[in-house]
Amino acid sequence: MAFSLGGKPDSISCYTSGKLDWHPSSSIFSGAGVSIKGALFNYGANWETAGRWSVEVLTKKNRYILRPMESLLVQKRGAIPQLPVELDDQIDKDFKLGLFRQVDAFLGDRTKELCSIGEQVSLVSTYNKMAIYK
User: What span, in angstroms and rounded, lies between the C-alpha atoms of 65 and 28?
Assistant: First the structure.
């Protein structure tokens, strides 16, 4: 999702530490980079603690926060409160977020709306780098 918003990484630096029985190569992930669109980005995850998925998109005027991913908050520049944005999201409450529309696009032969296998394959080396897989 982040790469579809900001662009695929042009350069990326990745760091990991920790391990889990089910994922011995790492459990804490951190990194930053520049996308092919020129957007700076950073990421972090810690599988050893509590938390949830989130994405933040910063513009010159606002910070948009998807946390949890099913909701949207906006923080205006120069303001402290993060205000909820009303969304027409009942379908995402009734089904797993994004699942209904993904299946609908697939069954409706609107595959251009979906990430292609080729796009996923082109990012495997980035995913491997993020996890420090050899």
Answer: 22
Task: Please tell me the distance from the alpha carbon of residue 42 to that of residue 13, in angstroms, as a whole number.
Answer: 9
Q: Tell me the domain boundaries of the chain.
A: 2-51+88-131, 52-87
Task: Concatenate the DSSP letters of all residues of the chain into one string.
Answer: -HHHHH--EEEEEEEEE--BTTBTT-SEEEEEEEETTS-EEEEEEETTS-----EEEE-SSEEEEESSTT--EEEETT----EE-----HHHHHSSTTHHHHHHHHHTT-GGGS--HHHHHHHHHHHHHHHT--
- Residue 46 in contact with residue 28, Cβ under 8 Å? yes
- This prediction has a pTM of 0.79
**What tokens appear for 121 in the block?**
């394959």
pLDDT (tens digit per residue) in 55-109: 999 999 999 999 888 889 999 999 999 999 998 888 888 888 889 999 999 999 9
Answer for the pair 6, 36: CB distance below 8 angstroms, yes or no: no
